[in-house]
Amino acid sequence: MISRKKKERIIEGVLAFCGFTTILTTVGIIWVLLSESLSFFSDVSLFDFLTDKEWTPLFTQKHYGILPLLSGTFLTTFIAVVTAVPIGITIAIYLSEYAPKSFRRNVKPALELLAAVPTVVYGFFALTVVTPFLQTIIPGLGSFNALSAGLVMGIMIIPLVSSLSEDALFALPKSLREASYGMGATRFQTAFRVAVPAASSGIVVSVILAVARALGETMVVAIAAGQQPVLTLDPRDSVETITAYIVQVSLGDVQHGSVEYRTIFAAGMTLFVFTFALNQFSYWIKKKYQEKYE
Amino acid sequence: MSNLSINRIIDTAFKYAGIFCTFLGLALLALFIGDILIDGFHRIDWDFLTNLPSRRAEKAGILTAWTGTAWILGLTSIIAIPLGVAAGIYLQEYGKKNRLASFVEVNIANLAGVPSILYGLLGLEIFGRVLHLGGSLLAGAFTLSLLILPIIIVATREALKAVPNSLREASYGMGATKWQTIWLQILPAASGGVLTGIILALSRAVGETAPLIVIGALAYVPFVATSPMDEFTVMPMQIFNWVSRPQHEFLVNGAAAIIILLVITFAMNGIAIYLRNKWQKKVNW
User: Fold this and answer.
1) What fold does the segment set B46-282 form as a domain?
2) Domain locations in chain A?
3) N- to C-terminal Cα distance for chain A?
4) ipTM of the complex
5) CB of A227 within 8 Å of any CB in chain B?
C-alpha cells in the first residue's frame, strides 16, 4: 500500500506531464518546420526564396519565390479584415452600448453560431453563392477569385472581432459611462469618446487575432480562390495562398524527402513566422495596455 | 440645426447601423442555410447515408465519411479529454505563480493561434512518419487532439477558477488531501463549464479539414474503417472532394453532406450553450 503522500506526488507528476504536452506541441511544431525548412534551404537559396517572383515547384521549370503565395495570402486577408473589422466593431458597440440586455443575451450565441460553421462549408458558400452573385456585378470575373474568398472569410471572422471587442467594452466600469452621460453626452459620443478609447487595447487585440486567423485560414481559399500562384494585388484575379498551396501538394503525389515535399514546410514556416509574431504582439498589447479600473 | 439635434441624429443613425450590422451576419447565415437546404435537401435519403462513395454522383453516399467522423470523434475524445482536463487542473490548481507558469500560459495562447494546417504538418511528420501511423485514423485523432487541447485547457481553467475557495478550504478542513479535494469537490462543482468546453472543442474537431488533408486522409475510401489503423475519410473531406469537382451533381451531393455536417455541429453547439446557461443559473456562489 503506497502512502497517501506518495500517491499525491504521483498524481501531481502525471498532471504536470499533461500540462507540459502543450510545450512539447510547440517544440514539435517549431522543430518540424525548422528541420524540413533547413533541408529545403540547402537546395534553394534563401535569397531566391524571398526575391524570385515565380512559384512553380511542381513544374519542370522550377522557381521557388514565395512572393506570389504571400501576395495571395495578404490579398485575401486584407479583403477579409476590411470586411470584418468595421462590421464586427459596429456590432460590438451596438451590443454593449445600445442594445437591451435581453437582446444581447440572445444575439451573442446566435452570432457565435457563425463561428461554429465548419470552414469547408464557407468555401462552398463562396463558390456557389458569392462568386455567381459577384459575377453579375463584375463582368468577366472568373469562377475562382480572391474577392469572393476574402469576403466570405470576412463574414466568417465577424464573430471573432465582435465577440472579443464586445467583451472588452462590456468589462468597462459603469461609472465611466455614467460620468459621460452626466455631462450630457449622447450614447454615440459616449461610445466613441469614452468607451472605445478606454477599451482600445481589447479592440486592437481582436483585430490582430482576426488578421492572424485570416492568414491561416485554409479551406475557403483552397475552394474559392483558385490555385494560381501569381504576383498580383487585383482582387478579381485567381490567387493561391500559402495554405492553399500546402493543400494542393498534400492532395497530390509528391515523394517524401524531395524538394517539392519540403516546399510545404518552407511555406508553412513562413506562415508560422507571421502568425506567431501577430500572436506575440497581441499578447504584449494585452499585458501592457490593459487598463485597470477599480 | 443646433448641435444638440445633430448629435441626436448621429446617435440614432448609429443605432440603426448597429442593428443592421448585427442582423447582416445572421441574415447571411440564414440565406446560406436556406440555399444549402434548397440545393441539397432533396438528395438526402437512406441510400445517401448508407452508400459507399462512387464516381457516379447519383449513386455516391456518405457511409465512409460519417463513420470516419464518428471514429475520429471517439478517438479524439479518448485522447484529448483526459489530457486537456488534466493539464487544466495542473495549471490552475498546482501551477505556481512563477516564470514557468507564465511561460506555459503564453505558450497556450500561442498554440490557440497557430493555424490548423500547421498542426497538419506536425502530424504528418511526428505521427505519420516518426511513429509510422501514416494516414490512419489514429494519426488523425492525435493531430486533432493537439489542435483542440488549448480550447479544453482554457475552458477547464476558467471553470475551476469560478469555484470559490471556501469549498477548497472546507474540504481541507475535513482532512482531505489536495487530490481528494480536486477529484471529489472542485471538479464536480466545475463539471458544467468543463463539459461545455469539451463539447465546443470536439465540435471544432468534427469540422476540421485542413490538418487531415495534410496528414494524408484520403478523399476516396471505398470501405468502412474497422480499426484505428485504417485509412479514412471524414465528412468535411468528402464535402471538399465533391465541391472541388466541376459537375453540378457533385455539388448537390456536397450540399446534402453539408446539411448532415451542420446538423451535427449545430447540435453539439446547442448542447454546449444549453449546458452553459444551465450551469450559470445553478451556480450562484
Assistant:
1) MetI-like fold (1.10.3720)
2) 4-43, 67-289
3) 52
4) 0.91
5) no
